[in-house]
């Protein structure tokens, strides 16, 4: 038994390392080739250059798309986090009829093919006579961000000891005062984490933006357009690398916030060190 | 100080509290004692304002509490989980409620320090809430409530999260603190030793009803029924038949203890002729050698359990359907009595109590 | 809460007050969730219903003819192109979900049982690639598998092949490979969560009762983590059926999937009802397939005990 066990424990870390490599290597190719002098992404590398990065700030269409992405991402993050707070609070703090159905509908975009969600939305928006714009993109992004916001916020709200709010009331605080002085500071990290996650999703999303944007586009749609031209590939790689770094920084920050939120709520309760 | 008149609370078909009436006097250390689900916490939370009676009224200091929200009641609570705000330090936790009063900052500081001194936490002001031990958390919770100078301090199982040693130490301290501040304390607990050791009076509750309200000694020695007797500690029950009942006393016939007259427990309700005679195991003493007593029973040791300072002897007495349990200190060698040995037991008739079944 | 108290006899008033308290708790919860719910209703439930409605109508040049018809479904289900696309999409999504789960299970197991204090770090490491742009991840596979790509240049450099192969890109396998990579992280989380819930003393009990590590795994760990496996399968299977980007970028002619056809109907072909019918059919089939998968796995898990 011990021999088999040793095999099992030794086999797994190796597999885990390979798996991580499988996950990361293809993505890491983007930055590697973005520094390569050759316009064709293939080995061996021909030389180190920053020229693909230098060209980026001189492409107005790209700058527009980047700005649009920021605006859309910011709006989607704020709206989906606000809606997420309502839902997460309602789901963790209250019990009411239809709760399961409501939460299933809110979480549904997570398990629906995104193209179908996008197409349905497109159909309705066009029927309503709304013209496609960045606003319609935000509408779509909020829809797909809400499930993630709700998940992040729920984990922040859960385990939040109700007696903390009761203690605040007991000590004379009003409902609003309790929210401001106890609830909000406790869940602030979860809220920040939700904002960052939604922003990242919006920033990276292609399908919704592809179907719902008008003449103004977001970065992924811009990249999609550039992919047709082989000559543009290196700049796209450079742009992609920047996005990669951006996402990574945002998510690391979101993760730190989420953990802080979890630690805060976990340290209440009756469990002592 | 607190008047609870015919208060009931139901959740759907479930009656958490059934027509409970109580009056708690000013400066009293009062305990609500009972097994989990007996309604004691529901009652406490209704006094605090976190729950509303389905019917009945609660008044505090002569003022009815109907419709007054928890944040405007003259009560403060120590929560079972202590509910220490994790994002605030010790001093900020204690000052939490004071902030609403907008006191001058020197006055606020003085009161916080005074409260921390009361619970022996001086000097820990700046300690983070997550860096406290269980006992310290409890003290912060106490200070946070006391600093508000409530008319009533409500304590929801405040010692249940502590280990045994700390719990015993805190019992003494809580009692001392209550006497020092003179505030009415209402404590909820399921631990009979806690209730007996700290309280001026105890209300024992079962299934949403208050079974008996009395001082600790009275409730231990003169329980109103078998359920209360059992919950407060071990007791020998002997079948009895009522031969006479008057305002002050009851006379019963038993096999084993013969005819016994005992004081009538308060709220005694007879149930036909049958009754139960009870005696606590430590009130039966072993008669050594040729010592005699005007009140004795004799039997045979059938089992023996050693507990360090005491030994439990299980004694079969002819005529009793169940053997008697005897708790004897080991000063005289009760732990050496062999199983199977004949034995004589003495008792004080005052230790006998007649109960409804 | 106090409103009910006016005038009526105290006892009844109290009861009403308590009732309204209970109700107001429910009402508060419902009020709180309503903005989010309303959003999902208006922008998800209603649009899906509109799509379903469209699928029974016909496109008449620029207008929609609203007479009920099943013609779109007849087309979607019998027309060889659509039937093939549907079948291929289902095949791809089933294969992808199978591979992702099989590849992810050992990782989830490793993190849960041997992750020690670094569990959340591992999870974070594994989820990071998932959060980077989907488009970019697919693109990197194009770079790897392409004619002048990394794989070809690498293999040529090693002398394994003499000239670049076109066999890697623009086929179903490329789509499967890319999707498996793209969804890998998504499957680990649910499996990990269900493994975390497995009470470790159960495993000790199984060992105590004579099971070796393999039997113990098959009889205790695997069945108890089945809910996670099912969730992982579904979470990959359902969205991948409708994937659009991957087949467009790396699928070529042989890798086209149903989403590309749906997009065409809403785009160039401008036949909304047919696009709607294809969408609804896709959803219906994928739901049925998900149901069957769940049923089979549950049945298998019961048999394994």
Number of domains of chain A: 1
Strand segment count of chain C? 2
Note the total helix count of chain A: 11
Count of helix runs of chain C: 13
List low-pLDDT spans of chain C.
1-19
Which CATH class of chain A?
Mainly Alpha
Name the helix and strand elements of chain A from N-terminus to C-terminus, one letter apiece: HHHHHHHHHHH
Output the radius of gyration of chain A.
23 Å
Q: Please mark out the parts of chain A with pLDDT under 50 across 5 or more consecutive residues, or reply none.
A: 267-273
The CATH superfamily of chain A is identified as: MetI-like
Give the tally of structural domains of chain C.
2
Strand-residue fraction of chain A? under 5%
Largest sheet of chain C: 2 strands, antiparallel
Subcellular location (chain A): Cell membrane
GO biological process, one term (chain A): transmembrane transport
Family (chain A): Belongs to the binding-protein-dependent transport system permease family. CysTW subfamily.
GO cellular component, one term (chain A): plasma membrane
Which terms summarize this structure?
heterotrimer; B: 357 residues; alpha+beta; OB fold (Dihydrolipoamide Acetyltransferase, E2P); 2 domains; 5-stranded antiparallel sheet; 20 strands; 35% strand; C: 305 residues; mainly alpha; MetI-like fold; two-stranded antiparallel ribbon; 2 strands; 2% strand; Spermidine/putrescine transport system ATP-binding protein (chain B); transmembrane transporter activity (chain B); AAA+_ATPase (chain B)
């Amino acid at each position: 038994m011990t021999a088999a066990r040793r095999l099992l424990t030794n086999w797994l870390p190796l597999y885990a390392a390979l798996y991580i490599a499988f996950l990361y290597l293809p993505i890491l190719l983007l930055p590697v080739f973005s520094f390569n002098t050759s316009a064709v992404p293939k080995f061996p590398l021909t030389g180190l250059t920053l020229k693909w990065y230098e060209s980026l700030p001189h492409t107005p269409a790209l700058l527009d798309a980047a700005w649009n992405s920021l605006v859309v991402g910011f709006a989607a993050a704020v709206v989906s986090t606000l809606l997420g707070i309502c839902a997460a609070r309602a789901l963790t703090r209250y019990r009411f009829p239809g709760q399961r159905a409501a939460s299933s509908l809110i979480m549904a975009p997570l398990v629906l093919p995104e193209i179908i969600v996008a197409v349905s939305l497109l159909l309705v928006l066009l029927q309503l006579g709304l013209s496609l714009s960045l606003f319609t993109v935000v509408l779509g992004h909020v829809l797909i961000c809400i499930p993630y916001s709700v998940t992040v916020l729920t984990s922040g709200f859960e385990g939040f000891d109700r007696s903390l709010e009761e203690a605040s009331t007991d000590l004379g605080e009003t409902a609003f005062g309790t929210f401001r002085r106890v609830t909000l500071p406790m869940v602030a990290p979860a809220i920040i984490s939700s904002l960052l996650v939604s922003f990242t999703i919006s920033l990276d999303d292609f399908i919704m933006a592809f179907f719902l944007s008008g003449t103004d586009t977001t970065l992924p749609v811009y990249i999609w357009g550039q992919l047709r031209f082989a000559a543009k590939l290196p700049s796209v790689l450079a742009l992609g690398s920047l996005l990669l770094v951006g996402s990574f920084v945002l998510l690391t920050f979101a993760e730190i916030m989420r953990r802080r939120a979890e630690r805060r709520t976990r340290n209440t309760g009756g469990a002592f060190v | 100080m607190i008047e609870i008149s015919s208060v009931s609370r139901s959740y759907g078909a479930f009656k958490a509290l059934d027509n409970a009436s109580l009056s708690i006097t000013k400066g009293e250390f009062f305990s609500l004692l009972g097994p989990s689900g007996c309604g004691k916490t529901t009652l406490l939370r209704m006094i605090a304002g976190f729950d509303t009676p389905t019917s009945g009224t609660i008044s505090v200091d002569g003022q009815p509490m109907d419709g007054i929200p928890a944040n405007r009641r003259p009560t403060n609570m120590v929560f079972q989980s202590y509910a220490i705000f994790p994002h605030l330090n010790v001093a900020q936790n204690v000052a939490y409620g004071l902030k609403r009063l907008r006191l001058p900052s020197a006055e606020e500081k003085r009161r916080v320090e005074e409260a921390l001194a009361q619970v022996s936490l001086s000097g820990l002001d700046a300690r983070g809430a997550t860096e406290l031990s269980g006992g310290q958390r409890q003290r912060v919770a106490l200070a946070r409530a006391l600093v508000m100078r409530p008319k009533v301090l409500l304590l929801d199982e405040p010692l249940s999260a502590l280990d045994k040693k700390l719990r015993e130490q805190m019992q003494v301290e809580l009692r001392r603190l209550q006497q020092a501040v003179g505030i009415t304390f209402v404590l909820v607990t399921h631990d009979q030793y806690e209730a007996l050791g700290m309280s001026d009076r105890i209300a024992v509750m079962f299934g949403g009803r208050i079974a008996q309200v009395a001082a600790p000694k009275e409730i231990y020695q003169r329980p109103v029924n078998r359920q209360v007797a059992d919950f407060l500690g071990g007791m020998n029950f002997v079948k009895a038949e009522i031969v006479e009942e008057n305002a002050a006393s009851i006379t019963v016939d038993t096999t084993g203890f013969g005819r016994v007259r005992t004081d009538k427990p308060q709220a005694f309700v007879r149930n036909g002729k049958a009754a139960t005679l009870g005696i606590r195991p430590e009130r039966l003493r072993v008669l050594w050698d040729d010592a005699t007593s005007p009140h004795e029973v004799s039997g045979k040791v059938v089992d023996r359990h050693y507990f360090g300072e005491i030994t439990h002897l299980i004694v079969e007495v002819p005529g009793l359907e169940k053997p008697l349990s005897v708790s004897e200190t080991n000063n005289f060698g009760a732990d050496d009595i062999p199983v199977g040995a004949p034995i004589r037991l003495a008792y004080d008739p005052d230790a006998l109590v007649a109960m409804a079944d | 809460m106090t409103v009910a108290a006016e005038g009526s006899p105290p006892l009844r008033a109290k009861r009403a007050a308590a009732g309204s308290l209970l109700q107001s708790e429910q009402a508060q919860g419902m009020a709180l969730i309503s903005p989010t719910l309303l959003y999902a209703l208006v922008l998800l439930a209603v649009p899906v219903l509109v799509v379903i409605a469209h699928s029974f109508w016909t496109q008449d040049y620029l207008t929609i003819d609203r007479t009920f018809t099943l013609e779109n479904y007849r087309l979607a289900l019998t027309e060889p192109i659509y039937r093939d696309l549907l079948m291929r999409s289902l095949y791809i999504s089933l294969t992808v979900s199978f591979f992702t789960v099989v590849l992810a299970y050992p990782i989830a197991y490793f993190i849960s049982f041997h992750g020690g204090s670094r569990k959340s770090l591992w999870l974070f490491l594994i989820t990071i690639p998932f959060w980077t742009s989907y488009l970019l991840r697919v693109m990197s596979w194009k770079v790897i598998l392409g004619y002048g790509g990394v794989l070809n240049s690498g293999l040529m450099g090693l002398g394994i092949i003499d000239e670049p192969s076109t066999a890697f890109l623009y086929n179903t396998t490329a789509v499967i490979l890319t999707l498996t990579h793209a969804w890998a992280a998504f499957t680990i989380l649910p499996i990990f969560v269900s493994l975390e819930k497995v009470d470790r003393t159960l495993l000790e009990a199984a060992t105590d009762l004579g099971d070796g590590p393999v039997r113990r795994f098959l009889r205790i760990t695997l069945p108890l983590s089945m809910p996670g496996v099912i969730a992982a399968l579904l979470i990959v299977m359902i969205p991948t059926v409708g994937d659009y980007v991957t087949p467009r970028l790396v699928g070529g002619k042989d890798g086209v999937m149903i989403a590309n056809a749906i997009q065409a109907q809403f785009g160039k072909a401008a036949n909304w009802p047919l696009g709607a019918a294809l969408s609804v059919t896709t959803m219906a089939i994928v739901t049925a397939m998900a149901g069957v998968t769940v049923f089979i796995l549950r049945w298998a898990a019961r048999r394994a005990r």
